[in-house]
Amino acid sequence: MTHIAKQKLGQLLIQYPKPAGLTMGYGTSGFRARSDILPWIMVRMGLLASLRAKVKKACVGVMITASHNPECDNGVKLIDPMGEMLDQSWEVYANNLATFDDNIDELWEYIELLMNQLNVQPQDEAVIALAHDTRQSSIPLAYVIRQSAQVLHSIILDFDLMTTPQLHYVVRCYNDDCSYGHYTEAGYFDKLCTAFQNLIEMSPGAQRPEQVIVDAANGVGAVKLQYVAARLSKLIHIDVLNDGTQGHLNDCCGADYVKLLQKPPAGIELRPSLKYCSIDGDADRLVYFFINSKKQFCMLDGDRFSVLYASFLHTKLQQAKLNDVKIGVIQTAYANGSSTDYLINTMHVPVACVPTGVKFLHHKAQDYDIGIYFEANGHGTVLFSDDIKNKIKTAVDDQSRTAEERLAANQLRAFINIINETVGDAIADLLATEAIFAIMHLTIEQWLQLYTDIPQRQLKVSVRDRTMIQTTDAERCCTAPAYLQDRIDQIVSKYQRGRSFVRPSGTEDVVRVYAEAHTQADADKLANEVRLAVEEFTR
Ligand code: G16
Q: In this protein, which residues make up the domain named Alpha-D-phosphohexomutase alpha/beta/alpha (predicted)?
């Protein structure tokens, strides 16, 4: 048996050779690169997913996507049984596997060593849930995963075309005896849409949600949103633009484009008094925008969702008389300084700062009864502890409580069911946001007016080797190259309300520069000065 497995793997190594001299690491969100150089890494990830599934005796997810990256890129990320990102300790195995060349004896020896260490056998059961985005390269890459996983006798559940958050959801449901929902796409839609409908219908005086126009980045989210739009058409009017029928994936559209360039997707003429949003290529990020009466473009990013959700949840907890609930917000260094200030000093909500990457935010959010996490780029969700879920459920059923208290508890329960707790989910976040608008009678302008962003600018810098940049303190301080941080400090000190940091991207071959300052002109100037410093120190 082992001999046959080794033989099959040997054939795959010949069929999908590793390009000479290539090194890759499991980054912010798995492996990402130009799609044509990826098949060999799929061979290794099919093996790793199988081992993970055997060890956990549970279904593990494999998502083929490069999310916000250009269409020519692709990637792979693994999903753990409860729908979380792959446990960080396993990133080491992923990186080790990626170092092996195509020598079957050496690779097989390592696989056997791992199986020994992890106490699993090739014939142990393993179930892998596989899905992909709309990239042309995705289906062939998924096929490599399938072939490689079968070397270790894994059973493949093929979910075909899905958003990344949908796959996280089905993995969780499959392993959770369906207590989180049914492990199908229909189960996903049913859970979210029913909860949205319930929340609106149970809330007295809730306004009918206004029309929302969604730029779907020409990605997988377009198809899925159209289903939601049709299903909820009596309650909310969702229009989908950039639906993949004309433009290219993430090309001058999508959440990353809108957030980074602070402008609307190309070709969309914004009409006053309408509400817009953008999702990204695999529908895990969401940003809102509109044009105000002065014809200025206004954007609401991930920081704004944290504030909105914290405020809604706080109000409902108070109305339900559920006291002593520990709510916390998790951000990264990209969070606008004004949002952090507003959360801490106006809303009195504790804020934690962690490195970029949903895996870090998700982990930290588990420290709270209600952990709200969002990256400024629009990637985020809310986690509710079992304890608070039970308290809410008990409050709903508690006849000794007033009708108002029970209603608030019921609204909280429905809100929890809209949210995809496994990972940031643009569709779930859109429905949650629209429900809050309707219940709180809030307009997008009022949401924006809660606080004023400090002007900011983000830049990408191409350098010889981005790993030369190393950071600490949740990426706010640069430790290498030597003296670069001193230079940044010196530059920042010239600007009123200045703040800037640099970090290597984990999804693109660039160094990212973030800057904020008192005026937009200053933020632009500061970002540019820091960019020049990065170029000088990495030459
Ligand atoms: C991924 C991660 C996010 C991260 C983003 C950018 O998003 O899931 O947590 O913020 O990459 O990462 P980096 O700055 O390291 O390139 P997505 O939407 O591309 O999967």
A: 54-89
Q: How far apart are CA 289 and CA 334, in angstroms?
A: 19
287/311 same-domain check = no
Q: How confident is the model at residue 1 (pLDDT cuts 50, 70, 90)?
A: low
d(CA 253, CA 261): 10
The answer to whether position 474 is within a domain reads yes
| Rounded distance between C-alpha atoms, residue 470 and residue 473, angstroms | 11
Atom of ligand 1 minimally distant from the CA of 164: 20
- The predicted-structure confidence for 393-423, as pLDDT tens digits, reads as follows 999 999 999 999 999 999 999 999 999 999 9
> Are residue 233 and residue 335 in the same domain, yes or no?
no
| pTM to 2 decimal places | 0.97
Beta strand 477-480 pairing with 499-504: unpaired
From the candidates 67, 138, 338, 339, give the one annotated as an active-site residue. Answer: 67
Chain segment 334-391, per-residue pLDDT in tens = 999 999 999 999 999 999 999 999 999 999 999 999 999 999 999 999 999 999 999 9
* CATH number for the domain that contains residue 206: 3.40.120
Q: Looking at 301-437, which runs of residues are DSSP E strands?
A: 327-331, 351-353, 370-374, 380-384
Q: Kindly report the CA angle at 131 between 129 and 133, in degrees rounded to 5?
A: 165
Atom of ligand 1 nearest to the CA of 377: 10
Tokens of 367: 């420290």
Ligand 1 midpoint to CA 507 (Å): 6
3-state secondary structure 13-66: HHHCCCCCCCCCCCEECEEEEEHHHCHHHHHHHHHHHHHHHHHHCCEEEEEECC
Q: Residue whose CA is closest, atom 10 of ligand 1?
A: 357
**In which domain, by residue range, is 328 found?**
302-422
End of a domain among 300, 321, 337? 300
